[in-house]
Amino acid sequence: MPRLDISRIEDRFPTIYITLISVLLAVGLEDVISQVRTVESNELFNWVIAIYVSGTTLAAWTGYSFIAITQVRRPRLFDSVNVFALAIGIFIINSSVGKAHHWFFFATSLYMFLAAYAVVYNISMLAEVMPFDMQFRDWAPCLWGTLFYSPPAALAGWLSYKGFIAESTEILLALVVMTQPPLWALSFYKMWKTAMNRARESS
């Protein structure tokens, strides 16, 4: 009987990890587009949600895939939690399509909280393989890019729920929330590029 090849498992981990997150994010993106097309209400806000999910899907895939290609190791339980928690967050946002607008803001606030966990976990994985000590200041912008948006999104949801803001204001606030994915992706790429340059200089 052939023996278990641990090195083979470790070599395949990045491919399996990236494939899994790619499939889950693609399903989430297809789901939101499908919901926007099928709901009776064809209002602008539903398309705002779809655009936001598209942007956050691209940002999430960038973060997960860039980190995963640095990992040659055995899978851990929290790898599954890390992947599925963020995917569930996207599906929760998708469920706000066609609903009262405050549900989108509440769902987005929850997603940002889950994304903050994903950032901490993914950066900790990256730090394990770097030939230098990654300091908090090196990746703090990636964390603030999620945490700073969560409370305002929750506040916007509460104001919308109480009826304190008009629909035009809700759309404006949603557009502000939509700036999070591209800004986060830019901050992550800047951190990633700096880390890779430092790793090359240290090797």
UniProtKB/TrEMBL annotation:
Transmembrane domains' residue ranges: 12-29, 49-69, 81-97, 103-127, 139-159, 171-192
Keywords, in A-Z order: Membrane, Transmembrane, Transmembrane helix
Protein name (database record): Uncharacterized protein
Phylogenetic classification of the source organism: Bacteria, Pseudomonadati, Pseudomonadota, Gammaproteobacteria, Cellvibrionales
